[in-house]
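Input (structure):
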């Protein structure tokens, strides 16, 4: 009980010290939670961040020269026969 009693006397003796401790603790706790959530978010979205940077790079290249990416943007589809129909020869 000696440590808790000493901590109680240190923090609870004056109202101004207690209020300062609560406000500083809330600020430090908010910063710690914000930092932790930000690190977890970055860890979970590493692949998305890389894709976003790649997309931004391709978009910048397209803006500077629109004809540069036309082969990438064109999709080619093969004709797929509809079910129930015979393929034409």
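Output (sequence):
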């Amino acid at each position: 009980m000696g440590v808790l009693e000493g901590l109680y006397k240190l923090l609870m003796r004056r109202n101004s010290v207690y209020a300062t401790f609560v406000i500083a603790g809330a600020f430090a706790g908010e910063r710690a939670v914000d930092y932790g959530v930000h690190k977890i978010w970055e860890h979970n979205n590493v692949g998305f961040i890389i894709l976003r940077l790649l997309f931004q790079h391709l978009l910048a290249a397209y803006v500077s020269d629109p004809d540069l990416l036309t082969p990438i943007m064109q999709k080619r589809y093969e004709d797929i026969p509809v079910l129930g129909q015979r393929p034409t020869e």
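Notes: The mean pLDDT is 77. Residues 15-44 form the longest helix (30 residues).
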